[in-house]
From TrEMBL:
Name of the molecule in the record: Helix-turn-helix domain-containing protein
SUPFAM superfamilies (UniProt xref): lambda repressor-like DNA-binding domains (SSF47413)
SMART domains in the cross-refs: HTH_XRE
InterPro entries noted in UniProt: Cro/C1-type_HTH, Lambda_DNA-bd_dom_sf
PROSITE patterns: HTH_CROC1
Ranges where the HTH cro/C1-type domain occurs: 131-186
Length: 192
């Protein structure tokens, strides 16, 4: 019989909150599975089966993750931490909640987690990264954005991949309106 405690906790979080990424890691912080992993598309490399969550966390932040999960175990409740990312194509602040899942003997079996928010650390972050983050926050993919704005999928792809840095004003305004943000939240400059 499979214990569904982690899936139940994740389902409750995903039903109530906007979640960018969710998943489960084992007691050694190795990723067992990921759900809603669209923001991780920011990275170029493929994910391996035996991958640690620390691959996505700046090395100087590892101790904060360990401290947060230890506090969650001690208090037997979810704990949230904001940490810096690694290997996501940009340095981002990640807001993550960890929930320890215990076995029948009070020992930690695994941790369920949800990533609530991503924010570029630098104001001058690449516009393609900002666009990907806002698309993930609004749970919209490139095809949906193209259909909603009337902008060609090729142009959306070029914007997401950084091949177009300064879009035309109308293009930027259509995208920003669909994502419910200001143009300046994504682009510092646009063309007239």
């Amino acid at each position: 019989m499979q214990d569904l405690s982690s899936q139940l906790w994740l389902r409750q979080r995903c039903d109530g909150d906007h979640v960018l990424v969710s998943g489960v890691v084992d007691e050694a912080h190795k990723i067992k599975f990921l759900l809603n992993s669209r923001p991780l598309e920011l990275q170029e490399a493929e994910r391996s089966d035996d991958e640690s969550i620390f691959r996505y966390v700046e090395k100087e932040e590892w101790s904060r993750v360990l401290k947060t999960t230890a506090e969650a175990v001690k208090q037997k409740q979810a704990r949230t931490v904001v940490i810096r990312s690694a290997n996501l194509g940009a340095i981002l602040d990640m807001n993550i909640t960890f929930q320890p899942i215990f076995d029948g003997f009070g020992k930690v079996k695994e941790y369920a987690f949800v990533l609530h928010d991503l924010k570029p650390v630098e104001k001058s972050a690449d516009s393609s990264i900002k666009l990907k983050i806002w698309m993930a926050k609004r749970d919209i993919n490139a095809s949906q954005l193209a259909a909603a704005t009337g902008i060609t999928p090729q142009t959306i792809s070029k914007l997401r991949n950084g091949k177009i840095i300064r879009p035309h004003r109308l293009t930027a305004e259509l995208i920003a309106a669909e994502l419910r943000v200001d143009v300046s939240d994504i682009w510092t400059e646009v063309r007239n």
